[in-house]
Amino acid sequence: MPADTALPGATTLTPPIYARQLRMLLQQGAIDGDRVLAAAQLDWATLLTDDRRLPQDTVTRLVTSAIAATGKPWLGLDLAASLPVTAHGALGIAAVTARDIAGLLTVLARYSSLRNAAFSWELQSTPQGAVLQATEQVDWGEARGFVLDMMVGGVLHLIAAALGQLPAGLRVGMPVAAPHWVAQYGRYFPVEIAFGQPALAFHVSREVCDLACLGADRHGHAQACAGCEEGLEEQSGRNMTQRVAALLAVAPVGRYPQLMEVASALGLTPRTLMRRLQAEGATFQQLLDTARQARTLWLLQHSRCSIEEIAAQLGYADTSNFSRTVRRWFGVTPLVLRQRDC
After folding, report:
1. Which residues pair with 171 in a beta bridge?
2. Domain limits at 293?
3. Structure confidence at residue 245 (pLDDT)
4. Where a domain ends, among 185, 208, 233?
5. How many CB atoms lie within 10 A of CB 222?
6. How confident is the model at residue 126 (pLDDT cuts 50, 70, 90)?
7. What's the rounded Cα separation, in Å, for the pair 248 and 336?
8. Secondary element (H or E) of residue 231
9. Residue 173: half-sphere exposure toward Cβ, Cα within 13 Å
């Protein structure tokens, strides 16, 4: 998805369970998972005990480092297939305890944003059955393929868990060209996949929609859905600081939105936004500086871009001004900061 089509205001905070499971998957493959975590400025002891969600830039660093370490561009499929239903929290439980696949799809359409708000979901009935479509809300850059594969694998894995197997009558539309390693999809998910489609979509025949879930449990389903509803309520009540920080974290490279643009995206006037941030002890400029600092550190230590190119990506026309800003933030020059990671 091109960066300029990313919708503002979407949070892409990711539950740490997925990063934990990725590290375990790497370890099982004789890959140094801790080294991969370190590239994303994570450590296993903290990741294991800290339940705070991971921001998009951290996840992107983790994904690119893991793919480089394994040499597997299909790593998202491997990870999705390794996840137990419970890794998806109340969403996973609500899905597999639904009465039938139609109910499972309804759960996914309503609650999937609780696990990854980088997509919005819509369920449509058709004469042939149903279509569950996911619309990308942010630009994942280098991690896009991994995230799409995780979405495909996650949905198909839940359907397989609910039925005991993947049934005939499923078709997936992928909004990317077929990769050279396309055969890897068949290892875990032997379904028809059409590449080059306008959006990620799951086409489910009417016969499959009517299939009963093996774990159908009216009481358990109701409890899990209640937990999901609480999650939606909590999600909608995120404080303004979090919402602005999430928007800035996914800003297109080379252009951070101005206060007026952020306020408009959140349905507020600039004055109201400033007042609400002030009430939470924050300012727009502080949040903008934090977003720029995080991206600066990542680009200097993990990209091959020149310092001049990085300065331009951060919106600095003058490299010397960028260098002064980096020194103010980190106490050293961009060159020294880059060499520290060598």
Report:
1. 192, 203
2. 240-339
3. 83
4. 233
5. 12
6. confident
7. 26
8. helix 218-236
9. 15
Asked if residue 12 has pLDDT above 70, the reply is no
**In angstroms, rounded to a whole number, what is the distance separating the alpha carbons of residues 229 and 90?**
10
Nearest 10 degrees: CA dihedral of 306, 38, 29, 51? -130
CATH number for the domain harbouring residue 301: 1.10.10.60
CA distance 213 to 81: 19
- Which of the pair, 23 or 263, is modelled with greater confidence? 23
- For the record, the structure tokens of 292 come out as 């720029």
Which tokens belong to 281?
């002890």
Locate 75 and state its tokens.
């790593």
Are 93 and 145 contained in the same domain? yes
Query: In terms of Cα–Cα distance, which of 132, 211, 210 is closest to 173?
Result: 132
Amino acid identity, position 342: C
Q: What would the two tokens of residue 174 be?
A: 């992928």
For residues 55 and 187, state if they share a domain: yes
Percent of the chain predicted with pLDDT > 70 = 93
CATH number of the domain that residue 209 is part of: 3.90.1520
d(CA 337, CA 44): 24
Q: Do 71 and 205 fall within a single domain?
A: yes
Question: What pTM did the predictor assign?
Answer: 0.70
Instruction: Please identify which residue in the block is written with the tokens 């999430």.
Output: 246
